[in-house]
Design a protein that fits this description.
Layout: H1 5-19, H2 22-40, H3 46-66, H4 70-84, H5 93-107, H6 115-126, H7 132-146
Helix pairs in contact: 1-2, 2-3, 2-4, 3-4, 5-6, 5-7, 6-7
């Protein structure tokens, strides 16, 4: 059985501590904390936690940049880079399109009114390899163009 993302983050934290990588240790501890809180709350989707934490850091970095605080923005961006190490590779547009097509056929969707039905069919197949907004846009585009 492969190690969970939490176990990998904890092992990497120990390695970063030994190597004296203080900034990386801070980012990894933040990630460990978020994963443990989700686990204690009954959560089981580590990828969803990573995506949520990544989104928070991206938004914070943008806010700091707009506010003229480049150093704080850079710190948030460094955390984004750490988080991305644990996320599954993003699905290509071609693969996403193929999955959307398959889900439309499977669910019998044919118009924008079937959006929910198609999304319910495609999201489990995507399994964290594409952001929900991206999947939603692909489904919406295909249903609008195809029906």
């Amino acid at each position: 059985m492969s190690a969970s993302i939490l176990e990998r983050v904890q092992a990497d934290t120990r390695d970063a501590m030994k190597a004296g990588e203080r900034d990386r240790v801070v980012a990894l501890r933040m990630l460990t904390d978020a994963l443990q809180k989700d686990l204690k709350g009954g959560g089981t989707d580590e990828v969803a936690v990573l995506r949520r934490e990544r989104k928070r850091r991206v938004e914070a970095a943008q806010a700091y940049r707009q506010g003229g605080s480049g150093e704080r923005a850079a710190s948030e961006e460094a955390e984004v880079t750490e988080i991305e190490r644990y996320l599954p590779a993003e699905m290509s547009d071609e693969d996403l399109s193929t999955m959307v097509e398959s889900a439309i056929v499977e669910s019998g969707g044919s118009s924008p009114a079937d959006m929910g039905k198609v999304m319910s069919a495609v999201m489990p197949k995507v399994a964290g390899r594409a952001d929900g907004k991206r999947v939603s846009a692909a489904v919406r585009e295909r249903l609008a163009g195809g029906g």
